[in-house]
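User: My collaborator sent over this chain with a note saying "see what the structure looks like." That's all I know about it. Can you take a look?
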Amino acid sequence: MTTAETTPQTSEHLYGFGDLPGLMARMTGDEKHGPAATSTLDALWVLYDRVLRVSPATATRIDRDRFLLSKGHGPMAYYAVLAAKGFLDPEILASFGAYDSPLGHHPDRLLVPGAEISSGSLGHGLPLAVGTALGLRAQGLSDPAVWVLIGDAEFDEGSNHEALAFAGSAGLERLHVIAVDNSSATHGWRGGIASRFEAEGWSAVTVDGRDHQALYEAYTRPHPGRPHAVVARVEPKNS
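Assistant: Without extra context I'll predict from the sequence alone. Here is the result:
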Protein backbone atom coordinates (compact mmCIF):
# COMPACT_ATOMS: atom_id res chain seq x y z
CA MET A 1 0.00 0.00 0.00
CA THR A 2 1.32 3.44 -0.90
CA THR A 3 0.69 6.92 0.38
CA ALA A 4 -1.56 9.08 -1.79
CA GLU A 5 0.26 11.75 -3.74
CA THR A 6 -0.58 15.43 -3.75
CA THR A 7 -1.33 17.31 -6.94
CA PRO A 8 -0.38 21.01 -7.29
CA GLN A 9 -3.33 23.31 -7.96
CA THR A 10 -2.51 24.74 -11.34
CA SER A 11 -4.93 26.34 -13.80
CA GLU A 12 -5.85 22.83 -14.92
CA HIS A 13 -6.56 21.68 -11.36
CA LEU A 14 -8.98 24.21 -9.89
CA TYR A 15 -12.16 22.84 -8.39
CA GLY A 16 -15.18 24.50 -6.83
CA PHE A 17 -18.04 23.30 -4.69
CA GLY A 18 -20.00 22.30 -7.78
CA ASP A 19 -17.28 19.82 -8.69
CA LEU A 20 -17.52 17.88 -5.43
CA PRO A 21 -20.42 15.58 -6.42
CA GLY A 22 -18.43 14.52 -9.48
CA LEU A 23 -15.34 13.87 -7.39
CA MET A 24 -17.40 11.85 -4.92
CA ALA A 25 -18.95 9.88 -7.77
CA ARG A 26 -15.51 8.53 -8.66
CA MET A 27 -15.55 6.59 -5.39
CA THR A 28 -17.53 3.41 -5.95
CA GLY A 29 -17.76 0.11 -4.10
CA ASP A 30 -19.50 -1.20 -1.02
CA GLU A 31 -20.06 0.36 2.39
CA LYS A 32 -19.65 3.95 1.32
CA HIS A 33 -21.84 5.36 4.11
CA GLY A 34 -23.26 7.83 1.62
CA PRO A 35 -25.54 9.75 4.03
CA ALA A 36 -22.70 10.16 6.53
CA ALA A 37 -20.51 11.63 3.80
CA THR A 38 -23.04 13.93 2.16
CA SER A 39 -24.12 15.31 5.53
CA THR A 40 -20.65 16.82 5.98
CA LEU A 41 -20.03 18.09 2.45
CA ASP A 42 -21.05 21.73 2.87
CA ALA A 43 -19.48 22.10 6.31
CA LEU A 44 -16.17 20.70 5.08
CA TRP A 45 -16.12 22.81 1.94
CA VAL A 46 -16.74 26.12 3.69
CA LEU A 47 -14.10 25.28 6.27
CA TYR A 48 -11.39 24.37 3.76
CA ASP A 49 -12.33 27.00 1.21
CA ARG A 50 -12.78 30.03 3.46
CA VAL A 51 -11.49 29.46 6.97
CA LEU A 52 -8.87 26.76 7.53
CA ARG A 53 -5.31 28.03 7.20
CA VAL A 54 -3.62 25.01 5.70
CA SER A 55 -2.63 23.95 2.20
CA PRO A 56 -0.57 21.17 0.63
CA ALA A 57 2.45 23.48 0.89
CA THR A 58 1.93 24.21 4.59
CA ALA A 59 0.55 20.87 5.80
CA THR A 60 3.61 20.13 7.93
CA ARG A 61 4.25 23.62 9.30
CA ILE A 62 3.96 23.92 13.04
CA ASP A 63 1.85 27.09 12.77
CA ARG A 64 -0.79 25.51 10.51
CA ASP A 65 -4.41 25.11 11.53
CA ARG A 66 -5.36 21.53 12.35
CA PHE A 67 -8.50 19.71 11.20
CA LEU A 68 -9.45 16.36 12.73
CA LEU A 69 -12.20 14.24 11.20
CA SER A 70 -13.87 12.29 13.98
CA LYS A 71 -16.84 11.23 11.85
CA GLY A 72 -14.54 9.09 9.77
CA HIS A 73 -16.98 6.39 8.68
CA GLY A 74 -18.18 8.55 5.79
CA PRO A 75 -14.91 9.89 4.35
CA MET A 76 -15.95 10.39 0.72
CA ALA A 77 -16.75 14.07 1.20
CA TYR A 78 -13.46 14.56 3.04
CA TYR A 79 -11.46 12.88 0.28
CA ALA A 80 -13.30 14.91 -2.37
CA VAL A 81 -12.52 18.18 -0.58
CA LEU A 82 -8.88 17.18 -0.11
CA ALA A 83 -8.67 16.41 -3.83
CA ALA A 84 -10.33 19.70 -4.75
CA LYS A 85 -7.83 21.58 -2.60
CA GLY A 86 -4.78 19.82 -4.00
CA PHE A 87 -3.93 17.45 -1.15
CA LEU A 88 -4.84 14.39 -3.25
CA ASP A 89 -4.56 13.54 -6.92
CA PRO A 90 -8.21 13.23 -8.07
CA GLU A 91 -7.23 10.20 -10.14
CA ILE A 92 -6.69 8.18 -6.98
CA LEU A 93 -10.30 8.63 -5.85
CA ALA A 94 -11.42 5.74 -8.04
CA SER A 95 -9.33 3.37 -5.92
CA PHE A 96 -11.35 4.17 -2.79
CA GLY A 97 -11.82 1.12 -0.58
CA ALA A 98 -9.60 -1.16 -2.67
CA TYR A 99 -7.23 -3.49 -0.85
CA ASP A 100 -4.11 -1.61 -1.91
CA SER A 101 -5.61 1.90 -1.88
CA PRO A 102 -4.48 4.58 0.59
CA LEU A 103 -8.10 5.76 0.69
CA GLY A 104 -9.77 3.46 3.17
CA HIS A 105 -13.26 3.48 4.64
CA HIS A 106 -11.65 5.40 7.50
CA PRO A 107 -8.86 7.91 6.78
CA ASP A 108 -5.35 6.86 7.76
CA ARG A 109 -3.08 9.77 8.68
CA LEU A 110 -0.03 7.83 7.51
CA LEU A 111 -1.49 7.34 4.03
CA VAL A 112 -3.67 10.38 3.35
CA PRO A 113 -1.90 13.74 2.91
CA GLY A 114 -3.52 16.40 5.06
CA ALA A 115 -5.15 13.96 7.49
CA GLU A 116 -4.20 14.81 11.08
CA ILE A 117 -5.62 11.65 12.69
CA SER A 118 -6.67 8.14 11.76
CA SER A 119 -10.34 7.74 12.59
CA GLY A 120 -12.10 4.73 14.02
CA SER A 121 -14.38 4.37 17.01
CA LEU A 122 -17.01 7.06 17.45
CA GLY A 123 -16.22 9.57 20.16
CA HIS A 124 -12.45 9.70 19.95
CA GLY A 125 -11.93 12.73 17.69
CA LEU A 126 -13.00 15.41 20.15
CA PRO A 127 -10.73 14.11 22.95
CA LEU A 128 -7.83 14.10 20.48
CA ALA A 129 -8.68 17.65 19.42
CA VAL A 130 -8.76 18.76 23.05
CA GLY A 131 -5.33 17.21 23.57
CA THR A 132 -4.03 18.88 20.40
CA ALA A 133 -5.27 22.31 21.48
CA LEU A 134 -3.86 21.83 24.97
CA GLY A 135 -0.51 20.70 23.57
CA LEU A 136 -0.25 23.71 21.27
CA ARG A 137 -1.03 26.02 24.16
CA ALA A 138 1.60 24.33 26.32
CA GLN A 139 4.16 25.02 23.56
CA GLY A 140 3.20 28.69 23.49
CA LEU A 141 1.61 28.36 20.04
CA SER A 142 -1.45 30.57 20.35
CA ASP A 143 -2.07 31.16 16.64
CA PRO A 144 -3.00 27.73 15.18
CA ALA A 145 -6.68 26.86 15.38
CA VAL A 146 -7.83 23.30 16.02
CA TRP A 147 -11.01 22.12 14.30
CA VAL A 148 -12.78 18.80 14.71
CA LEU A 149 -15.88 17.53 12.92
CA ILE A 150 -18.10 15.17 14.85
CA GLY A 151 -21.50 13.62 14.23
CA ASP A 152 -24.48 14.02 16.54
CA ALA A 153 -24.47 10.28 17.26
CA GLU A 154 -21.02 10.64 18.82
CA PHE A 155 -22.74 12.17 21.84
CA ASP A 156 -23.87 8.64 22.64
CA GLU A 157 -20.24 8.14 23.73
CA GLY A 158 -19.16 9.31 27.18
CA SER A 159 -15.69 10.29 25.99
CA ASN A 160 -17.12 13.30 24.16
CA HIS A 161 -18.90 14.59 27.25
CA GLU A 162 -15.71 14.29 29.28
CA ALA A 163 -13.71 16.10 26.59
CA LEU A 164 -16.09 19.01 26.14
CA ALA A 165 -16.38 19.45 29.93
CA PHE A 166 -12.59 19.67 30.25
CA ALA A 167 -12.22 22.00 27.26
CA GLY A 168 -14.78 24.42 28.67
CA SER A 169 -13.17 24.57 32.09
CA ALA A 170 -9.71 24.93 30.53
CA GLY A 171 -10.83 27.80 28.30
CA LEU A 172 -9.35 26.29 25.13
CA GLU A 173 -10.12 29.28 22.92
CA ARG A 174 -8.38 27.86 19.84
CA LEU A 175 -10.57 24.73 19.84
CA HIS A 176 -13.52 24.60 17.44
CA VAL A 177 -16.08 21.82 17.01
CA ILE A 178 -18.35 21.30 14.01
CA ALA A 179 -21.18 19.01 15.09
CA VAL A 180 -23.08 17.79 12.04
CA ASP A 181 -26.58 16.93 13.21
CA ASN A 182 -28.50 14.57 10.92
CA SER A 183 -30.73 13.26 13.72
CA SER A 184 -28.92 9.95 14.04
CA ALA A 185 -28.21 10.06 17.78
CA THR A 186 -29.89 7.47 19.96
CA HIS A 187 -30.30 9.61 23.07
CA GLY A 188 -30.24 13.25 22.01
CA TRP A 189 -30.00 16.19 24.40
CA ARG A 190 -32.79 18.30 25.88
CA GLY A 191 -32.55 21.82 24.46
CA GLY A 192 -30.45 20.70 21.50
CA ILE A 193 -26.79 19.96 21.02
CA ALA A 194 -25.67 23.58 21.36
CA SER A 195 -27.07 23.72 24.89
CA ARG A 196 -24.82 20.82 25.87
CA PHE A 197 -21.76 22.84 24.94
CA GLU A 198 -23.08 26.02 26.54
CA ALA A 199 -23.65 24.17 29.82
CA GLU A 200 -19.89 23.59 29.96
CA GLY A 201 -18.91 27.18 29.22
CA TRP A 202 -18.52 26.96 25.45
CA SER A 203 -19.61 29.47 22.84
CA ALA A 204 -22.13 27.68 20.61
CA VAL A 205 -24.37 28.44 17.65
CA THR A 206 -26.77 26.35 15.55
CA VAL A 207 -27.07 26.95 11.80
CA ASP A 208 -28.42 25.41 8.60
CA GLY A 209 -25.69 22.99 7.58
CA ARG A 210 -26.38 23.64 3.89
CA ASP A 211 -26.16 27.45 4.09
CA HIS A 212 -22.59 28.39 3.23
CA GLN A 213 -22.77 31.99 4.39
CA ALA A 214 -24.36 30.96 7.69
CA LEU A 215 -21.63 28.37 8.18
CA TYR A 216 -18.91 30.91 7.44
CA GLU A 217 -20.34 33.45 9.86
CA ALA A 218 -20.68 30.79 12.54
CA TYR A 219 -17.12 29.57 11.99
CA THR A 220 -15.69 33.08 12.31
CA ARG A 221 -17.85 34.25 15.22
CA PRO A 222 -15.71 35.75 18.02
CA HIS A 223 -15.54 33.67 21.21
CA PRO A 224 -12.86 35.19 23.47
CA GLY A 225 -11.66 32.91 26.23
CA ARG A 226 -13.93 30.00 25.29
CA PRO A 227 -13.91 27.07 22.87
CA HIS A 228 -16.49 27.34 20.11
CA ALA A 229 -19.03 24.87 18.72
CA VAL A 230 -21.00 25.12 15.48
CA VAL A 231 -23.97 22.78 15.23
CA ALA A 232 -24.75 22.24 11.53
CA ARG A 233 -28.28 20.90 11.10
CA VAL A 234 -28.89 18.88 7.95
CA GLU A 235 -31.67 16.61 6.72
CA PRO A 236 -32.26 13.47 8.83
CA LYS A 237 -30.21 10.47 7.76
CA ASN A 238 -33.27 8.37 6.99
CA SER A 239 -35.34 11.07 5.27
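A starting point for your reply to your collaborator: The chain has one domain: 33-233.
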